[in-house]
Amino acid sequence: METKMTKQTTFRGTALAALLAAAAALPASAETWRMSTQASSESFEGQAIDKFAELVETYTDGEIEVRVYPNEQLGKLDTVMDQLGQGVIQVVSTSVALLGRYVEAIDYTSAPFLFEDYEQWSRFMNSELVQGWVSEAEEAGNIEVLGDVTAMPRGSYRVIASETPVASLEDFDGLRVRQWSNDLMVNAWEHLGAEVRILSWSEVYDGLNRGLIQAVTSPIELIEPQKFYEVAPNISRTNEYPQALAFLVNKDTMEGLSPEMQEAVERAHAEASTFMEDLLDANVEEIVTTLESEGATFVDLDLGPVVERMDGFYQELDAAGELPDGFLDAVAAARTE
C-alpha cells in the first residue's frame, strides 16, 4: 500500500523533473535586447518593429528576446542614441539621418525637396560617398546599421498636416512648423518662409493642440495612429524626401554574437522589411479613405515653386562651400543611372 510519504516524494520528484525539463528547454545564453522606437505599436512602423522582434526570437531559437519600447518610452532621441552607444539600449529604430550627430554630412541624406523618387534616393544611399559617411558614423558612435538602410521604407510618401490648408508656397509664410533638432531641416524650412519650432515626436500632438505649432511634416502612415488629423485636419502631399527606417544596433552587442546569431538577426531584419513594404503597398489607399472618414481634408499643393525655391537654397550652399564634398555630384549620378 502506497504511504502518504511515498506520494509526497513521488510528487516532489515529478515536480523537480518538470522544472529541470523546463530549464533545459531554455536557451543557455538567453539575453534581452531593449529596443527604442518613436512609433506607436498600432502604426505600420510599430507592426514592422514587432515583426522584427518576433522573428529575432524565432530565428535565434529564443536566445535573443527583443523587448520593444514604443512612443519614446525610453527617452527622447538624443538620450536613447547616447544609451545605444553605451550599450544600455541595444537597438534603436529611427531615420539614418540621426547618425548626423557623428558625421554632419549624413544630414543631407534627408535633404528636403531634392530627390525625385525613392529609387534615386536608394542609389544615392548606396553610393560609395554615403556608405563612407555611414562607416565613419558607425565607428564614432559604437553603432552598426543593420542590413540595407533603404530596405524598409518608413512611409509611402511624406505630407504636411496643418491647421489651415497648405496649397502653395505662399502658405508656408509664417507657418509654425514642427521639426526636429537638425540645422539642415531648420534652415530649409525657414528658407521656404516657415517659422520652425523644435519639438520631440511625442510632443507634437500637444503642441498642435495648444497652438505652439500649426503644422507637422510626417509620413502619411503616421498621421492616423498619432491622431494628428484631430488638431491638424488639412493634409498636403509634399514628397519632402524619401525616408527609410534604420535599425541601429550597439556595435559591441552585435559583434559579441556568433556568426550564426548575426545571420539570424540580419535575416529577421530583411523579412521585417519585406513585411513593411507589403503593409505599405496594401494599405496606402485605405489610409487616405480612413483619414477622410475621420474628417481630414486632402489639399493639392503646387510643388513646382517649392522645388524651384529649394534648388536656389542648395545652389547658395554650394557656392558658399557649405555642402559636403561630392554631394550634388552623387545626387546627379543617382538620378541618371
Automatic annotation (TrEMBL):
The keyword Iron does not apply. Keywords: Periplasm, Signal. One of its GO terms (biological process) is transmembrane transport. It is found in: Periplasm. It comes from Salipiger mucosus DSM 16094. It comes from the Bacteria. GO terms for cellular component: periplasmic space. InterPro entries: DctP_fam, TRAP_DctP_sf. Pfam families: DctP. This is TRAP-type C4-dicarboxylate transport system, periplasmic component. Its main location: periplasm. Residues 1-30 form the signal peptide.
